[in-house]
Amino acid sequence: MKKIYFASPLFSDMERLYNEMVVAKIRETYPEFDLFVPQEQMGINDKNAYADAKTIAKYDTDALLNSQLVIAVLDGTSIDVGVATEIGVAYQAGIPIVGLYTDSRQQGATNQKKLDALQELAESQFSYINLYTVGLIKMNGIIVDNLEDLIQEIA
């Protein structure tokens, strides 16, 4: 059975609900895959309870290293630090990574007004994503910009 690790921020309602929607679509499409979702691991992620840093790190890293694929949600003001760490561990272990980056500011890359605005201080119309982390993904995987492409890449 193919094991997939789902790396995503998980601390706000918005993040958790988005994760639930994405995970439900993956499970609906690939019921034969075993999907590890950290936010579902209440033994270590119940924020009303307590798990120390080493317990969390060991639990999630063991699950990640036992996976054949990592899905990494890259959306947000910046890539979530936990997700970036998981990407680094997956890269080092040689586990393929599919990054999901849906930021709509990437649209219009040929719009001349948006390109001209890059010459003005603080007027970029595009989002920024950490290039080191992106490079790790691209050296051992792919980045997609929508859920449909993510579903296809999982296969």
UniProtKB/TrEMBL annotation:
Pfam families: Nuc_deoxyrib_tr. It comes from the Bacteria. GO terms for biological process: deoxyribonucleoside monophosphate catabolic process. InterPro entries: 2'-dNMP_N-hydrolase (IPR051239), Nucleoside_deoxyribTrfase (IPR007710). GO terms for molecular function: 5-hydroxymethyl-dUMP N-hydrolase activity; transferase activity. Keywords: Transferase. PANTHER family: 2'-DEOXYNUCLEOSIDE 5'-PHOSPHATE N-HYDROLASE 1. This is Nucleoside 2-deoxyribosyltransferase. It comes from Isobaculum melis. The lineage of its organism: Bacteria, Bacillati, Bacillota, Bacilli, Lactobacillales.
